[in-house]
Amino acid sequence: MIRLIRSDERLIHGQCMQFIVSDYSIRNIIVVDDMTSKNPLLRSIFQNAVPAALTADVFTVEESVEVIKKALTDDSSSLLLMKNPRTLLTLMEKIEGLPAELNVGPQMARGGVKCTDYSTLHPQDIEACKTLTQKGVRVYFNAIGATGAVTEWSSVAKRL
Hints:
Blueprint (H helix, E strand, L loop, with lengths): L1 E6 L6 H10 L4 E5 L1 H5 L1 H8 L7 E5 L1 H13 L4 E5 L2 H10 L6 E4 L8 E4 L2 E3 L1 H12 L3 E4 L9 E2 H5 L3
Parallel strand pairs: 1-4, 1-5, 2-3, 2-4, 5-8
Antiparallel strand pairs: 6-7, 8-9
Helix pairs in contact: 5-6
């Protein structure tokens, strides 16, 4: 089962391993990012950045479709991880039954709109979040996992 769908520009990192994996009892990490998947060195780094008790793999959007469909129905807790909200919008067009929640974590400030202290979204990501919420997806910001402070998209959208 997919326990959490998260958008975090850093993908797999210490905070992810320390808080999110334990908070959600994650056993598998499915990273969906075309650029990372096509770079053998980055792919290897991400696959080896997890403790031995976990599995992690990196896929392009197209490669991920069947893997995610399987993860929706298996008994192992999975984290679906991507760099930005646009990726989830693309996946929702290809896969039925995805959980209707997106946890937006840190997004770097490079010419976007500051949404929280740790998350700056580019205009395309803002549009993706708007579309996701119109489709009934709960979009919320949370930097560190289940115990961190949550900011709902609705409160962010009012400021945009």
